[in-house]
Design a protein that fits this description.
This protein is an alpha+beta fold and 421 residues long. The protein has three domains: 217 residues, 3-Layer(aba) Sandwich (Rossmann fold), CATH 3.40.50.300; 83 residues, Beta Barrel (Elongation Factor Tu (Ef-tu), domain 3), CATH 2.40.30; 105 residues, Elongation Factor Tu (Ef-tu), domain 3 (Beta Barrel), CATH 2.40.30.10. Helix content is 18%, strand content 34%. The chain has eight helices and 23 strands. The strands form four sheets. Strands 7, 8, 9, 11, 12, 13, 15 and 16 form an eight-stranded antiparallel beta sheet that branches. It has a six-stranded mixed beta sheet with strand order 2-3-1-4-5-6, sandwiched between helices. The longest helix is centred in the middle third of the chain and has 15 residues. The radius of gyration is 24 Å and the shape is globular. It starts with a helix and ends with a strand.
C-alpha cells in the first residue's frame, strides 16, 4: 500500500466561501468519510463537541487549529491539511472567507489545481462568492467546483440548486474560468461529499471525492514552452564524480529529453542535454513539476538564476514588468518609486515601482485610476523596473515563470505577490 501511495499523483485544492458556509465542516467530512483521521483525533473532537453542548459531532474542529478560530468558530489563517486515498495524494489549503483576509486566500490558491467555492443554499450567490470567483479567475486556477452546501436546510430542493447554478454561471461567464463543476451537498450530513446522497436522486453528477480523485490535472502544466530555472550547480568534487557538473532545479514548463538542443539564458549559448539525473536514477525525459539535475554536453558558465530553454522558444527577457499585484503589508502601503527586493523563479533582483495604473475593485471589477493608494488586501495593476533582466512569461501561460513576490528589504517580509500580464 505504501508503494501505491508514493507513486500516486498529488492534487492541491483550496477552499473558499463566506463565513459559516461550512468550509471547515466540509474538509472535516472529507477527512472523516475517507477514513483519513485517527481514532484519537475523532474521540477528541467528539469530547469537545459534547462539552460545548453541540447536538452533533462538530467536524469543523478537525481543521480549525488556531485557538482564536475555535473560540470564534471562524477560519483566520491558511490551514494546510494532507490526506491520501489509494488514487491520489491531496493537499488542502483551507483559506478564510472574510474580506480582510484576501491575501491569505491568494497565498492558499496560488499553487492550487482546483478551487472549491462554497455557497450556502439558503443565501445563494453572495458578494463574497463573486469575490472568490474573481480571485480564482485572477490566479488562473484551472478547475473550479461550486459546492452548493446546506442543501438539507432547503429540503434538498432541485429548483434552489438550479437557480444558484444559473446565477453563478451568468456571473462566471464574464471571467476567465475554463472549467466549472457544480455539486449540491450537505457537509454536515455527508450528502454527496464522499458518499452519494439518497436525498437528491435528481442529481446525476459525481460526489466531491470522486471528482477530486478523477479530475484530469496533467494538462494543468504548460508542457509546450520549455523552462528550467537553475536553482543549484552540483559539483561533488570527489574522485568518483570527478568531472560531474549538474544543474539542479524544478521544471517550470515543457518536456526536456536526452539529446535535446537547448539554450542558456542570459548568455544565449546553445548546447545539448547529455543526461537527466534524479535521486531515483537516470531518466530519458522530464516534465513539470519534476525536480531533476540536467547535465549538458558543453562546459558553459551557468549559475543560480539562469534559465535553460529551447532555442526557438524563449521567454521574454526584460527589465520592465507589468503585474497584477495583491498587497500583503498591513503596516505600509505600496509606494510609487518605492524600492523592493523580488524573487522570480530562482532569481533574486531589486525593483523600483514605476507606476500604479489602477486599483481593482474586487467586487465589481471596476478600475479605480484616481485612488491609487494600495493598502493591505488591495489588488492593483503596477509597472515595475528591475535591476537586471528577468526571463518572464505571462501568468496565464505559465504560473511559475509568470509570478513573482515582493519583499521589504528592511523587514525581509513578503509584502506582495504579482501575476505578470
Amino acid at each position: 500500500m505504501a508503494q501505491e501511495y508514493s507513486n500516486s499523483e498529488l492534487l492541491r485544492f483550496t477552499t473558499a466561501g463566506s463565513v459559516d458556509d461550512g468550509k471547515s465542516t466540509l474538509i472535516g467530512r472529507l477527512l472523516y468519510d475517507s477514513k483519513s483521521i485517527f481514532q484519537d483525533q475523532m474521540e477528541a473532537i467528539e469530547a469537545t463537541s459534547l462539552r460545548r453542548g453541540e447536538e452533533e459531532v462538530n467536524l469543523a474542529l478537525l481543521t480549525d487549529g488556531l485557538k482564536s478560530e475555535r473560540e470564534q468558530g471562524i477560519t483566520i489563517d491558511v490551514a494546510y491539511r494532507y490526506f491520501s486515498t489509494p488514487k491520489r495524494k491531496f493537499i488542502i489549503a483551507d483559506t478564510p472567507g472574510h474580506t480582510q483576509y484576501t491575501r491569505n486566500m491568494v497565498t492558499g490558491a496560488s499553487t492550487a489545481n482546483v478551487a472549491l467555492i462554497l455557497i450556502d443554499a439558503r443565501n445563494g450567490v453572495a458578494e463574497q462568492t463573486r469575490r472568490h470567483a474573481i480571485i480564482a479567475s485572477l490566479l488562473q486556477i484551472p478547475h473550479l467546483v461550486v459546492c452548493i452546501n446546506k442543501m438539507d436546510l432547503v429540503d434538498y430542493s432541485e429548483s434552489v440548486y438550479e437557480d444558484i447554478k444559473e446565477r453563478f454561471e451568468a456571473f462566471a461567464s464574464k471571467l476567465e474560468i475554463k472549467d466549472v463543476h457544480f455539486i449540491p451537498m450537505s457537509a454536515l450530513k455527508g450528502d454527496n461529499v464522499v458518499d452519494k446522497s439518497k436525498n437528491m436522486d435528481w442529481y446525476g453528477g459525481s460526489t466531491l471525492m470522486y471528482y477530486l480523485e478523477n479530475v484530469h490535472i496533467g494538462s494543468d502544466y504548460n508542457l509546450i514552452d520549455c523552462r528550467f530555472p537553475v536553482q543549484h550547480v552540483i559539483r561533488p568534487y570527489n574522485d568518483e564524480y570527478h568531472d560531474y557538473r549538474g544543474y539542479a532545479g524544478r521544471l517550470a514548463g515543457g518536456v526536456f529529453k536526452k539529446g535535446d538542443k537547448v539554450m542558456v539564458l542570459p548568455s544565449g549559448f546553445t548546447t545539448t542535454v547529455k543526461k537527466i539525473d534524479t535521486f531515483d536514477g537516470e531518466l530519458e525525459k522530464c516534465y513539470p513539476p519534476m525536480s531533476v539535475t540536467l547535465l549538458l554536453e558543453d562546459d558553459i558558465d551557468i549559475s543560480r538564476g539562469d534559465m535553460i530553454v529551447r532555442e526557438n522558444n524563449a521567454p521574454t527577457t526584460t527589465q520592465d514588468v507589468e503585474i497584477m499585484l495583491c498587497w500583503f503589508d498591513d503596516k505600509k502601503s505600496l509606494q510609487t518609486n518605492g524600492k523592493y527586493a523580488i524573487k522570480h523563479t530562482s532569481q533574486d533582483a531589486r525593483v523600483i515601482v514605476k507606476n500604479i495604473r489602477y486599483k481593482l475593485d474586487i467586487n465589481s471589477l471596476h478600475r479605480d485610476e484616481e485612488n491609487t493608494e494600495i493598502k493591505v488586501n488591495d489588488i492593483a495593476r503596477v509597472v515595475l523596473r528591475s535591476t537586471k533582466p528577468l526571463f518572464i512569461d505571462a501568468y496565464r501561460k505559465n504560473r511559475t515563470t509568470g509570478s513573482l513576490i515582493l519583499i521589504d528589504e528592511g523587514t525581509n517580509n513578503t509584502v506582495g505577490v504579482g501575476m505578470i500580464i
